[in-house]
Amino acid sequence: MRINMSVATVLAMLGAVASAQDAPLSPVAHPELWPKVQARPALDEDVEAKVTAMLGAMSIEDKVGQIIQADIATVKPADLLTYKLGSVLNGGNSAPNNDEQAPPAEWLKLADAFYDASMTRSDGRPKIPVIWGTDAVHGNNNIVGATLFPHNIGLGAARNPALMESIGRITAKETAAAGLDWSFAPTLAVVQDDRWGRTYESYSEDPALVASYAGPVVSGIQGKVGTADFLSPGHVIATTKHFLGDGGTGGRDQGDTKVPETVLRDVHGAGYPPAIAAGTLSVMASFSSWNGAKMHGNASLLTDVLKGRMGFQGFVVGDWNAHGQIPGCTNESCAAAINAGLDMFMMSGDWKKLYANTLAQAKSGEIRPARLDDAVRRILRAKMLAHSFEMGRPSARKFAGQFDLIGSAEGHAVGRQAVRESLVLLKNNGNLLPLKPGANILVAGKAADTIAQQAGGWSITWQGTDVANSGFPNATSIWKGIDQAVRAAGGAAAYAPDGTYAAKPDAAIVVFGETPYAEFMGDRPTLEYSPGDKSDLALLKKLKAAGIPVVAVFLSGRPMWVNAELNAADAFVAAFLPGSEGAGVADVLFADKAGKPAHDFRGKLSFSWPKRPDQYVLNRRDPGYDPLFAFGYGLTYADHVVMPRLDETRPAGMVVDSGGVFFAKGRVPDAWSLALGEGSGSTRVVGNTGRSPAGGLTVVGVDRNAQEDARRFAWSGTREADMHIEPNRPLDLSREANGELSLVVQYRVDAPPTAAVAVTMTGGGGAADKPASVAIGGVLRAAPVGQWQTLAIPLKCFVTAGLDAGRVTRPFAVATKGKMTVSIADIRVTRADVPIDRCGAI
Ligand code: BGC
Ligand code: BGC
After folding, report:
1. Residue predicted with more confidence, 221 or 6
2. Is residue 12's pLDDT more than 80?
3. Which band of pLDDT confidence, cut at 50, 70 and 90, is reported for residue 13?
4. If you measure from the C-alpha of residue 605 to the centroid of ligand 1, how many angstroms do you get, rounded to a whole number?
5. Which one of 100, 181, 514, 519 is the catalytic residue?
6. pLDDT digits (tens, 9 = 90+) for 577-628
7. 200 touches 151 (CB < 8 A)
8. Which of 115, 632, 671, 680 is most buried when burial is the number of CB atoms within 10 A of its CB?
């Protein structure tokens, strides 16, 4: 009888397991399928007793305050005299005094001010220190002068877990030196589709590799759990993110990970058990959805799996206003997220409204009292374990204010080692590398002396753009590193971005690649490198045609289709985003005086490298796996491999777009078309000049900064005519339209319009095609004649006017019935300083 019962129970359980696996589209997790984290740290009874006592002494207002984190762009220290918030953060674009270049002393001063205000109260209730969180994702990267380690994709290639521990430790110390308490790292995304703009934040496409780094990096940041080192001075709180499935969204930022629960667990979840075992005190919920359900509202994963089954005892912090994306929620009101298991909202904007609404929900019981207490308990537990109550003011802490630790000697040394180990040698025909340092070396390419480009996103600014080399005072560019190495060995190196030279060099090193981006700004429709601008390829070809041996050093946040560039180079190094220690590149490229390589290549690809631009999902365990370079590939100096010529043809019909650039230097991206329409006809412009079917609109090439880098369009006013741009396949701009981006046009009015003018975007496709227009005649008439101007129209304006942004068939058209002459140099979707909610005033 008893035996029968248990067999029945087992069968029922098996049935439950099987049906969970068979139901891939259920957004409800089955905790029993997930691993228990046996090795997790035990609760400390003393800490728990203190937390219990503190909870008992707190008002409901205090509790609600603890579960809110506000961005320093919108919260001021004085606010914490009244509102006892649990935390503040600096978002990627926020800095003390609104100054991205604020010196470390300003960060520390502001940290003191927040701390002091949080601890000021006279009503006898508990004084709870506020903690400051920051994206120290590749070093303490928001602060000028900090060591910038290679982004995670390069670290994955290094295959060195012990190095992750050192990097975590140094980053924590550079963070603590500025008086900050908490880092939003590590990212344990297991990225499966490399079109995603956050691919570089991932160590690998391979769950086992990510899992092998999780423990060491968390231990480095926080110190080793269970020892006196844990959260000792110089360590900060870590955040394991983004829970869960961030790397599975089909290449779209904040997208939907459509996978069965077993894949969610085994691929995307792989890093969490070791991070929990290492004692990560916080986990960040993901912006993304799992099978259509937003993670911030998924109780079965946040509560039942993460906190229940895996036994995570720290707190779950939200992502940037992500709670507002749960159906029924807004940024200012979201009981559902807390009830699902979120412990702290990350809020930019009107956090006082969020506070008021959350307080009302706590009072009414809409947020369950036990849930609120649990959230606060978890936050207080982390603060106690991190010694936040004992450490005193930020500036009084050990290491705080020791600004020589920001960009320290150890940081430089370990950063440089990390660069050396992250480089992957993809091609070395004729064993061109290592180069002889005594030789005459030409360094070319725009990226060779541009630190922002080697650092990538999340470097001083969120996007990592617009920071001059002077904004990275302790960094070394790749060119500087080469120059030092070559000169030290008695050779000569010269830098010419465009590859010009006086005397023919012995070899050329061309450094080129992706320009910085973060998050959705880096989402791409294909893996083709720079489809709209082939000037880097032209440079490689020019040097090779001159008989110069060419070494390509390619900077990128992901593997890319570079067959043509590979063909045009004799040696090719994938350097990913190496960060501030550019000298690590020369360390490996050059032999010593005796001709022996001082450092060999050690990097092995942590992401598979595509042989076609449409191999977006290319992971080692996928069926039909057919990469150009497989996961784990990477030559050393002991290898003698001759790479044959690769196919350079782009698959027919593949969507081609250059990341939101519709028109650059007077040209549309490859495979797109520029056309002049009139009546029911239109003519495609092939060369530099063109005319509409009846000649009412003509175009010629004009010079702006270079020869023919713009076009002048002249409307004669005989009848309505338009110039328009069409991609070879419809574009999905829904994320961009949602992301506060604008359509930005560089133009010059040569003769003002005599009638109304409209800019139109068309979307829907086929019979569903629908134009959405914004009038710009007034702006053009007000613009000074003959001067280059920037026009920015928030994409949201087109959506309001009816655009189907998910299927844009014609991303740009400008039309008028009147007479006008306008020159255009550039059209793209990007961020602009325009109020995104006003379509009238542009
Ligand atoms: C990102 C997080 C980051 C947070 C704070 C979000 O947009 O997704 O990774 O930690 O912003 O800057
Ligand atoms: C980023 C923030 C950034 C903000 C700018 C967010 O998505 O995570 O760190 O400051 O966008 O709007």
Report:
1. 221
2. no
3. very low
4. 26
5. 519
6. 999 999 999 999 999 888 888 899 999 999 999 999 999 999 999 999 999 9
7. yes
8. 115
E strands, 652-756, are: 661-663, 673-678, 681-684, 690-691, 697-702, 710-716, 721-726, 742-751
**Which of 135, 252, 738 for a ligand 1 pocket mutation test, highest count of atoms within 8 Å of Cβ?**
135
Q: Which listed ligand is nearest to 186 at the C-alpha?
A: 1
User: How many angstroms separate the alpha carbon of residue 319 from the centre of ligand 1?
Assistant: 6
The set of protein residues with a Cβ atom below 6 angstroms from ligand 1 is 91-92, 135, 184, 241, 287, 319-320, 519
Tens of pLDDT, residues 742-772 = 999 999 999 999 999 999 999 999 899 999 9
Tokens of 453: 């480009």
Report the nearest-CA residue for atom 3 of ligand 2.
92
* 761 contacts: CB under 8 Å, gap ≥ 6: 743, 771, 772, 798, 803, 808, 810, 811, 812, 813
Best residue among 94, 325, 348 to mutate for probing ligand 2, ranked by most atoms within 8 Å of CB: 348
Q: Which residue's alpha carbon is nearest to atom 2 within ligand 1?
A: 319
Position with higher pLDDT, 23 vs 73: 73
How long is the chain?
842
pLDDT at position 251 is 94
DSSP bridge partners of 232:
none
Assigned token pair, 202 = 């991932």
Q: For residue 135, which atom of ligand 2 is closest to its CA?
A: 9
**Phi and psi at residue 317, to the nearest 5°:** -95, 145
CA distance 226 to 499: 56
Tell me, yes or no, if 626 is annotated catalytic: no
Confidence of residue 18 (pLDDT cuts 50, 70, 90): very low
Mean pLDDT of the chain: 94
Q: Give the mean pLDDT of 274-289.
A: 98
Full-model pTM = 0.87
Indicate the burial class of 111 (C-beta count within 10 angstroms; 0-12, 13-18, 19 or more): buried
319 is catalytic: yes
Task: Please name the amino acid found at residue 309.
Answer: R
pLDDT greater at residue 694 or residue 840: 694
Phi first, then psi: give them for residue 29, nearest 5 degrees. -85, 160
Give, using CA atoms, the residue closest to atom 7 of ligand 2: 320
Q: What is the structure's pLDDT at 831? A: 83
Residues with CB under 6 A from ligand 2: 91-94, 320, 462, 519
Burial of 277 (0-12, 13-18, 19+ CB in 10 A): buried
Structure tokens at 825: 């140099």
Cα dist from 166 to 147, 223, 732, 806, whole Å: 13, 11, 41, 44
Calculate how far, in angstroms, residue 325's C-alpha sits from the geometric centre of ligand 1: 15
Residue 791: pLDDT band with limits 50, 70, 90? very high
Ligand 1 centroid distance, CA of 41 (Å)? 27
Atom 5 of ligand 2, nearest CA residue: 93
- What SS3 class is residue 545? helix
Distance 71 CA to ligand 2 centre (A): 10
Give 732 Cα–ligand 2 centroid separation in angstroms. Answer: 22
Say if strands 239-243 and 492-495 run parallel, antiparallel, or are unpaired: unpaired
Q: How far apart are CA 561 and CA 582, in angstroms?
A: 24
Nearest ligand 2 atom to the CA of 73 is 10
pLDDT score of 671 more than 90: no
